[in-house]
Amino acid sequence: MEIDKLRKEIDAIDEEIVRLLNERVSVCKRIGVAKGGVGVIDLDREKRVLEMVAARSDDAPSEGVRAVYREIISMCRRVQRPIMVAFLGPEGSFSHEVALKYFGSSSKLLPNRRIRNIFTEVDLGEADIGVVPFENSLEGAVNDTLDCIVEYPVSIVGEVVFRINQNLIVDPEVTSLSQIERVYSHPQALAQCDGYITKHLNDKEIIVTESTARAVEHILRDRKGAAIGSKVSAELNELKIFEAGIEDSPNNYTRFVAIKKGGSAETGKKTSVILSIDHVPGSLAAVLNSFAKNNINVTMILSRPLYQRPWEYLFFIDFEGNLSDEKCRTAIEEARKKTRFLRILGSYSELQ
After folding, report:
1. Same-domain status, 55 and 109
2. Between 302 and 106, whose confidence is greater?
């Protein structure tokens, strides 16, 4: 039969794929020996590989090819040395989804209850990479992350803009909202679903949790409770999604950043800096003019209070370009002269 013949062709192709995978792993082992066990992660190199294979895909969907190659890269990293990736929350959190998707299942994923713990693990060398939420399109900056970036000697090596879908998650036996007495979730998720809660859950007790994934775990012990969280966390705990997509706005995105200890590469599409300026009129404008006159587009400005000086602020600034670009270096040095201090957080691109 024709189908049997075609399946034999697939079998032969699969054998060749496995042979080439073994060959790739062998080469990666030799690279690991040459590196001496350090520098396992090279996000710029991995980004170029993913872009190359996606560009060469024909009948195979490019995103599917990317997904396959993320796992291949993760597997090849592991034969050199499994990379340790710290993330916020238990399994099923949005941070866990990001870490798993972009660093692969062959990485060792380390859950943490607090953002500060992620920075501590990276600083102590217990994690190679930390994945932390930086800002949300609806709720703004994640202040714990900003404060820790100031405090710890880390750099930003990549970013991900992740679409956030919030779901009402219940025990599989629940068939009506009248059976629900309590709603568990993280404050940010509750704020993102305020309209739905007001309309459908206004008479329920609201219980705040440290993460959406932790909220979902409560439902395993509380059959009269509901949680607001991710589809993945519902699936991991074998719970039911009573209603999907209950966030108030469809434009609900969280920007996550990947951090590591020490400096970052000088390549990428974006650079982040943090700076402090004199508390006088025109000081911020003078700094921004350093970028404007070098034709550099500033894409974000965030401020955080200086704890030692009431009503004075630190500024986080993102701009297009990287440290290998002469005009970016010129702009930074000009800006530095107009600040109390300026620290480069890194040049990086979006993780692929």
Report:
1. no
2. 302
Asked if residue 133 lies in contact with residue 112, where contact means CB atoms within 8 angstroms, the answer is: no
- CA nearest to 131, candidates 159, 91, 90, 105: 159
- Give me the pLDDT at residue 120, please: 97
Q: State pLDDT tens for residues 150-207.
A: 999 999 999 999 999 999 999 999 999 999 999 999 998 999 999 999 999 999 999 9
Q: Residue 332 belongs to a domain with what CATH number? A: 3.30.70.260
What's the CATH number where 1 sits?
1.20.59.10
pTM for the model stands at 0.77
Task: Report the 10 Å Cβ neighbour count for 53.
Answer: 16
The stretch 32-36 carries a mean pLDDT of 71
**The tokens of 285 are what?**
């404008």
DSSP 104-142: -TTSEEEEESSHHHHHHHHHHTS-SEEEEEEEETTTEE-
Residue 207 lies in domain: 167-243
Place of tokens 């090819």: 65
Q: Could you tell me if 95 and 226 lie in one domain? A: no
Spatial distance between the Cα atoms of 141 and 150, rounded to a whole number of angstroms: 14
Give yes or no: residues 75 and 2 share one domain: yes
**Among candidate residues 146, 116, 141, 144, the one with its CA nearest the CA of residue 254:** 141
pLDDT computed for residue 139 by the predictor:
83
Alpha-carbon distance of 333 to 324, in angstroms, equals 14
72 vs 164: CA distance, rounded Å: 26
Segment 123-132 shows an average pLDDT of 94
